[in-house]
Design brief:
- By secondary structure, this protein is mainly beta.
- It contains two helices and 28 strands.
- The two termini are 26 Å apart.
């Protein structure tokens, strides 16, 4: 649930792969095991169910609705938000159903459910016994992180954050949480100590509603979407401890990723993909290429950017692949409203 659902919640409380040619759908006999590849989290339509898609970059093969096919047509629920693999399991966060669906990582066969959540967003494993789940709260404003026991699949503690906690980033014994504002506005990041679960929330130097974080050269970078009720909403890219103004970017920019080898940052905003560099932070912001995208994935090994184009949010979307020099490589189909791309090498 990104900008599209943000506004509507607030107001209302077949394969195409072009890499040197086109390929037909090769999925007559779908495999029953998924180990590596590109996973696409499709939020799904309003009133319907979200899905998970899978793409094999070596063959061009696409599989749709992995969960439904593996579980006799059972549905995940409305607004599938994110997917995380850990310890042989897949954890699918279903925002509208207030739960995390646990599946076998290779077959997507249902294993269990983590309930007791309120508008959950992202899942962060800490070890084989513990994970954190960011959640907006039923009012979309009472943000917190749920601490989950992965043996019992129960919430054992709730850690308060700012409004709209979204993506989380772990660095050693610390976890940072971007407070995206939820149905309102926020301008903070929460730091959680894993040793005692104590949380401290600090204001960010600039921008409103940070949604994604990236760590490079011991600096914590954050990307802000801006606040839609402002007269002129703007996004912002900056880092904690910056003594100079950060970078103004398009409103509703999202999905900040970083190449740890060269310090290049990439993110989506305003129907384009942007690039900046940590070494020349104040002057390196540029448009890499024009491409509508509701989500962005980055394959650091192959230097590929996967842009999830949600189209009209009611018909199947598409993921378009680019090299980091801006060259278009190909594309493949996705489900309705693709919002997250996960690369599993």
């Amino acid at each position: 649930m990104k900008v599209r659902q943000f506004f509507l919640y607030f107001l209302a409380v077949n394969l195409l792969f072009t890499a040197c040619g086109e390929k037909e759908d090769c999925c007559v006999n779908p495999p029953n095991s998924f180990k590596t590849g590109i996973y696409v989290v499709n939020e799904g339509p309003f009133g319907g169910t979200g899905t998970i898609s899978w793409y094999n970059p070596e063959t061009g093969e696409v599989q749709d609705s992995l969960y439904e096919k593996a579980n006799n047509g059972a549905e995940l629920g409305q607004f599938v938000q994110s997917l995380t693999f850990h310890d042989g399991k897949g954890y699918i966060v279903v925002n509208g159903a207030n739960r995390v669906v646990v599946v076998d990582a290779e077959t997507f066969v249902y294993l269990d459910t983590i309930g007791g959540l309120a508008l959950p967003r992202y899942f962060l494993p800490i070890d084989n016994q513990t994970a954190l789940v960011s959640q907006w709260g039923f009012d979309g404003l009472t943000g917190s992180v749920a601490k989950v026991n992965l043996t019992t699949q129960q919430v054992v503690k709730t850690i308060p954050t700012g409004k709209g906690p979204d993506k989380m980033l772990r660095n050693g014994n610390q976890v940072w949480v971007a407070n995206s504002g939820g149905y309102g506005v926020d301008a903070s990041i929460t730091e959680i100590s894993l040793s005692n679960d104590q949380a401290q929330t600090q204001a960010i130097p600039s921008g409103k509603n940070p949604s994604t974080l990236a760590l490079y050269s011991q600096k914590l970078y954050y990307l802000c979407k801006g606040y839609f009720l402002d007269n002129n909403p703007v996004g912002w890219l900056d880092f904690i401890g910056n003594t100079t103004p950060g970078l103004e970017v398009p409103a509703y920019s999202d999905d900040l990723v970083v190449d740890s080898d060269d310090g290049n940052f990439y993110f989506i905003g305003g129907g384009q993909v942007y690039r900046s560099n940590a070494a020349n932070f104040q002057n390196s912001l540029s448009v890499l290429f024009a491409q509508p995208a509701y989500g962005l994935g980055f394959d650091a090994d192959l230097n590929l950017l996967y842009c999830a184009d949600a189209k009209d949010f009611s018909s199947p979307g598409e993921v378009v692949i680019y090299r980091t020099d801006g060259t278009r490589v190909g594309s493949f189909r996705a489900g309705i409203a693709p919002g997250e791309v996960l690369i599993v090498p």
